[in-house]
Amino acid sequence: MLLEIDAESSVPPFEQLRRAVIDGVRDGRLVPGTRLPPVRTLAAELGLAANTVARAYRELERDRVIETRGRNGSFISATGDPTEQQAQLAASVYADRITQLGLDTDRALEIVRAALRSGD
């Protein structure tokens, strides 16, 4: 996750992080199902205290931007209506599996298009 914190900014670091995640969701860089780095890992990467990152994560979770799945970590939440949420989650699972299989994006999309056509 490519984030930068401006130490000279008047905006507190936790708020910069919170806004960066929200911006990533809005512009599509962070899609539903994206796993966020653990708090300590991200804190070390950004040169922040773990409590600062934890606060940003808590506020993002409160606003339903992310969801925490216990020991499995924190993930970008599905958004929209329930049907859209289910589609986003299915797409995320599919994308994870395609990555595990080593297929490229173009081939993965061909497979999806073929599957959708067969359902018509």
Q: Notable features of this structure?
A:
mainly alpha; Arc Repressor Mutant, subunit A; elongated
Q: Strands, helices and their partners?
A:
Blueprint: H1 13-26, H2 39-46, H3 50-62, E1 66-68, E2 74-76, H4 82-101, H5 105-118
Antiparallel strand pairs: 1-2
Helix pairs in contact: 1-3, 2-3
Describe the structure.
The protein is mainly alpha-helical and 120 residues long. It folds into two domains: 77 residues, Arc Repressor Mutant, subunit A, CATH 1.10.10.10; 43 residues. It contains five helices and two strands, in the order αααββαα. A two-stranded antiparallel ribbon has the order 1-2. A hairpin with a 5-residue loop joins β1 and β2. The longest helix has 20 residues. The mean pLDDT is 89.
Strand content: 5-15%
Provide the gyration radius in Å.
Answer: 17 Å
Q: Note the quaternary state here.
A: single chain
Number of domains: 2
The CATH class name of the largest domain reads: Mainly Alpha
Percent helix among the residues? Answer: 55-70%
Measured distance between first and last alpha carbons? 38 Å
Describe the biggest sheet?
A: 2 strands, antiparallel
Q: Assign the CATH topology of the largest domain.
A: Arc Repressor Mutant, subunit A
Please count the helical segments: 5
CATH homologous superfamily (4th level) name of the largest domain = Winged helix-like DNA-binding domain superfamily/Winged helix DNA-binding domain
* E-strand count: 2
Overall morphology: elongated
Low-confidence stretches: none
Strand order of the largest sheet: 1-2
CATH architecture of the largest domain: Orthogonal Bundle
- Overall mean pLDDT stands at 89
